[in-house]
DNA sequence: CCATCAATGGACAGCGAGTTCAGCAAGGAG
DNA sequence: CTCCTTGCTGAACTCGCTGTCCATTGATGG
């Protein structure tokens, strides 16, 4: 026993988990989250059934494990691949997030599809709310509660993201969506906080 | 054969459907949509299993049937129980909708719970988008697409509604939420359309 | 080189969806 | 009021998916 930080001591374990994670993401992009069965997963990952349950309690547990990368992208720092210029303006998560979603379009679409009822939207919203809370100036004593503002911004972002991903006709770039997001959300923000 | 407009000719049919609809709503308020099984439904409604499938293809079909009341509330006219004054200002659906949700809190909460992944949010959003489209002045040729604006408003409303229903600490009234909604969304709207 | 630990795979019980059918009861038309 | 249409019944059945168990095999790290 290596007593490493609670993860991946054995190469076999790492291999198995990576295979399962990739299988889930691939299958989600194809069929949507809830259409994916455990039988699908273990077949795609080429892993025994009992092996799956050795690592994860169920499908949702595996999904949680897959979400860590996403959390890392929004969460702390000013986003890894912010690209050009300084992302020191407010709501810095927006553009990197949109770019990443644009690159993984089928997967991102499956994740934000409301009809398919992914529990994922809830997770994403929570992460967003925390990211925004960290960015907003704390001293906001208006008639509008801070929590309401947080959910307002997160809800707007998710609404635009979902619309963009499922829109077949017009083909906007991540940069355009970012502009639209800011154009819509900034006036309301200014009106409420300083 | 009476050839009536495709609905409820026989009293037995009406009785059975009403029983099933009420059962679904009651059970959703208790357990959430996806925890409700067909066995639950027919037991609560006191109806045979095959009877259920005589009327609905599945659970989702029954849910659709339950949603007509909701569509009626938002859809056409300036909302049935608008109450005081003239609701001729923009976004007239907001206050009646919030009042209704406040009266049916447990049910409304179950419907908007993202963790429980109700397909219902998708339906509601679609109805909202159409209602807003009907209200917005059609001539909006800005840099921001009309569709984006529609989803922006609907997304904001749903985000605030969800937050409000699941907020345990602060207890706001429907009127307060309506005010917050307008305070946040109006500046962005004005900035984009005329 | 060896003890450990993960992977295997097949069998199993449990649950929920959706179907079928022969028999029964209630409704509506005349 | 009568009769025939129509909907309800309820139980049994198939099917697919979940989650568990266990004896066995084989790779891994010390």
From TrEMBL, chains A, B:
Gene3D superfamilies: Tetracycline Repressor, domain 2 (1.10.357.10). InterPro entries: Homeodomain-like_sf, HTH-type_Tx_Regulator, HTH_TetR. GO terms for molecular function: DNA binding. Residues 37-56 bind DNA. SUPFAM superfamilies: Homeodomain-like. The keyword Ubl conjugation does not apply. It holds the Pfam family TetR_N. It comes from the Bacteria. Residues 14-74 form the HTH tetR-type domain. This is TetR family transcriptional regulator. It comes from Microbispora catharanthi.
């Amino acid at each position: 026993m290596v007593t490493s930080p609670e993860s991946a001591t054995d190469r076999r374990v790492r291999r198995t988990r990576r295979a399962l994670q990739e299988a889930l993401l691939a299958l989600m992009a194809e069929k949507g989250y809830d259409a994916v069965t455990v039988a699908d997963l273990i077949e795609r990952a080429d892993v025994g059934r009992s092996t799956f349950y050795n690592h994860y309690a169920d499908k949702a547990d595996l999904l949680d494990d897959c979400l860590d990368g996403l959390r890392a992208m929004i969460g702390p720092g000013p986003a890894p691949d912010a690209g050009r210029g300084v992302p020191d303006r407010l709501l810095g998560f927006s553009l990197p997030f949109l770019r990443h979603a644009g690159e993984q379009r089928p997967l991102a679409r499956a994740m934000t599809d409301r009809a398919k009822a992914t529990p994922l939207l809830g997770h994403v919203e929570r992460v967003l709310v925390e990211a925004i809370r960290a960015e907003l100036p704390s001293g906001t004593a208006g008639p509008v509660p801070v929590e309401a503002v947080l959910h307002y911004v997160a809800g707007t972002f998710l609404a635009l993201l979902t619309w963009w991903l499922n829109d077949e006709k017009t083909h906007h770039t991540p940069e355009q969506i970012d502009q639209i997001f800011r154009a819509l959300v900034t006036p309301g923000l200014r009106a409420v906080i300083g």
